[in-house]
Amino acid sequence: MMHNLVPYGMAFVIFAVGLYAIAVKKNLIKAIIGVIILEDAANLFLVLVGYRVPASGEPIPPIIIARAGGGRPAADLLHRAVDPLPQALVLASIVIGLAVVALMVVLALRLHQKYGTFDLTEISKLKG
Amino acid sequence: MLIPLGAAFLIPLLSFVGCRTQWRVSEAISLLATVALVLISFGTFGRGPVSVWLGNYQGKSELLGLTEKTAAAQPPGAPPAGVGIDEVVPDSAAGAAGLQPDDVIKGWRLPADTGFRPLHSINELRRENAALKPGSTLVLQVERGGRALEVNLPAGKSVTGIAMFGDGLTRLFLVMISVVSLCAVLFSFSYMQPYNKLHLYYAPLMLIIAGMNGVVVSGDLFGIYIFLEVAAVASCVLVGFGVESEELEASFKYLILSAVASALNLLGIAIVYSMRGTLNLAQIAAFTQHARPNDALWLALALFMAGFGLKAAMVPFHGWLPDAHSSAPAPVSAMFSGLMIKVTGVYVLARLVFNILGVSAASAYVLMTLGTLSMVVGVFLAVGQWDFKRLLAYHSVSQMGYVVLALGVGAEALAKGASLTREWEALAFLAIFAGLFHLINHAAFKSLLFLVSGSVVYRTGTRDLREPGGLKHTMPWTSFFTRVGALSISGVPPFNGFFSKLLIVVAVVWAGHWFLGAVTVLVSLVTLLSFVKVQRYLVEGEPASDFAGVRDSPFPMQAAMGILAAACVALGLFLPLLSPVLFDPAARALVEQLSGYVTFVFGG
Fold first, then answer.
1. Is the pLDDT of residue B285 over 90?
2. Which fold has domain A6-123?
3. From the CB of residue B36, how many other CB atoms can be counted at a distance below 10 Å?
4. Which residue in A has a C-alpha nearest to residue B236's C-alpha?
5. Cα–Cα nearest to B271, from B305, B239, B296
6. Quick check: B130 and A78 CB within 8 A?
7. ipTM of the complex
8. Whole domain around residue B442: which residue ranges?
9. Alpha-carbon distance B59 to nearest alpha carbon in chain A (angstroms)
10. N or C: which end of chain B has fewer CB within 10 A?
11. Other Cβ atoms within 10 Å of B230 Cβ, number
C-alpha cells in the first residue's frame, strides 16, 4: 500500500522555512525564531514517524490509564496505540531545544547591551 | 573495559555538580576528575571490547526483521494487494518463520481466529508481532511465486534499554580526550586567573568532557544525539565566557550552526528509526548486513554527512570554526580544536559510515571530496592570517581534511574490494590507520599550539604575530614548545606529524589517486610555509621595545605544554610500541565494518 507521504513532505517544508529564516534574516531574534521552527520541524517529523494506523479502530495515544473501572486493556493498547518511542525522544529533544533557545536569547540580550541593536549587519565584527 | 565505560561520563558529570561552589574547590575537583579519567583510560589497554546493556536485553533479534517493498499506488477503494517483502534478517522472527524476499504477505490471523484479516502495511505486522506473548505465534497468509501458503510467525525478541559499547576505536578516543583535557585543566589554573567567577568556568568544562565521553561510549543513536547536545551547549557557554562583544558574537554564531547541525542529525535519526525500527547501533548494523540499499537511508546518510560535517567544520560548513575557536579562552580552544571537532564530527561520521550504515563508493567519494576541499581551502585561508589563534583555527580545518581524506580512501578500498582480497584489505587498513594516527597527532600538536598561543596572550596580551617578536629571548620555554608544535604540524621528520602524513600520502597514492597524493604533499608544504612565518615573526628576531620585559609563563602552563610536547615526540618515535595497543585495534574496528561490530556486541 502506498504510504501517504504528504505529512512527511510538510515537515520538510517547515524545516526549509526554518533554514531560510536562519540563512537570510539579519535580525538576531528572527534567527532564533528560525532555529525554533527548525527544531519543531525535526520533532514533528519524529512524531509522524511514530504514527501508525491500526487494523481496526482509531489510533490512540500510548498512555496506560489506570482507572477504577479497569481502564484501557493492555491488548487494546498494544493493537491500537501509536509507537511510543519517538514520542519519548521528542520530549527529550524539546527539553534540549529549550536549553539551546534560552542560551541563545541570553546571548542576544547581551549583544543588545553591547551594540544597542539586534541587526546582524551592524554587529558583525568577525569575518568568518 | 566495563567500569571505564560508565566512569568515562559519570566522573565528569559528578564533577560538574561539584564544580558549582568555590573556584579553588572546582579547580581541585576538575584536576582530580581529569587525572582519574587519564588513569581509567590507560587502564583499558590490552582489554578486549565490551558491551554493557542497561535494561532488558534478550538477544540479537530485531523485533520483526522485515522491510517492505515500495508498492505501486492503489486506486482508492480497491482491496489491499498485500505487502511485498524486500529483505529478511536471518536472526529474527521473520527469518525463523522462513519468510523469503519477494514473498507477498496477504493477511494475518491469531491462531484462535478463523479467517484472515488483510494486511495493509509492515508497521501493522510489526505492532501485532510486538503484542504477542513470548512463545505464541501469528499465522500469516503468504503468496510465494503464485502459490498460497500459511506461515507461523513467532514473537520477535525485543531489546529495550540503553547500551554502551566500547571497542578499540572507543579506547583510542577515551585516551585522547582524557590526556588533552588534563592538559587543558592544568593550563587553566594560571591562564584563567584574570577572569572572575571561575567556578562557572570549570563546570561547563567538565560538562564538555562528559558529553564527549558519552558520545564515544554511547551504543544508540539517540544517546549520541543527547551527548552531542550536552557538549555543544556547554561549549557555547565557554566560547562566550569572556562576555566581550566578539566572544558573544562567536558564541551566538556557533550556537545557531550547532542547532542546525543537531536538527539535521535528528532528521537523519528519525529516518533510520523508521526504516530499521530500532535505534541501537549494533541492531541497525545487524540489519544493514543483510539489507539491500535503501533510498531513504541514502537521505539519512546525506543528512548525517551535512550534520556531522558541520560539527567537524568540513569546508562548505567551516564558517563558524575560526570565530569560535579563536574567541574562546586558550585552554578551551585547545579542547575545541583538539577534541570537539574530532569527537562530535569525525568519530560519529566514521562510526556511522563504517560500522552502522555500511560503506559504499558514493559515501567514500563524498568523504574524499570533503576532505580534499577542507585540506586545500583551510590551508590557503590560514596562510594569510596574522592573528595567531585564527591561523591555528584555519589549520584545524585543513588538518581534519587529511583525516577525512584518509578515511574516505579507506572506505573506497572497502567498497571496491567487496570480496576483500588481501591487497584491498591492507590498503583500507593502512588508510584508516593513517587517518586515525593523524587524528591523534593533530590532537597533540594543535592543542599544544593553542596552549602556546594562550601562553603568549597571557604574557603579552596580543594575538598579533607581528607585535611581540623575539620570544626566544624573553620566553625561552614557550618558544621551544612553539617550535615543537610547528615542526610537528608541518611534518618535519622526527616528529609525529611527519609519520602520519607520510602514511596518508602512501595510502592515497597506493589507492591510485596520484593527483590527490600530490595535493596532499603540496598542502603540507604550504603548512610548513605558514609555520615558518609564525617562527620568523614570533620566535626569532629581537623583542619589540614594549615587550622586552615579559617573563616566561608560570609553571602549570609549562607543565601542560610539556606533556603535549612530549606526546608529540613520543607518538612519532614510539609508534611501533603504541600501535599494537592503541592504533591497530582502532583501525581494525573500522576495517571489520558491520560484521566486526555486530560480532563484538552480540558474540559470534
1. no
2. Helix Hairpins (1.10.287)
3. 16
4. A103
5. B296
6. yes
7. 0.92
8. 359-573
9. 20
10. C
11. 23
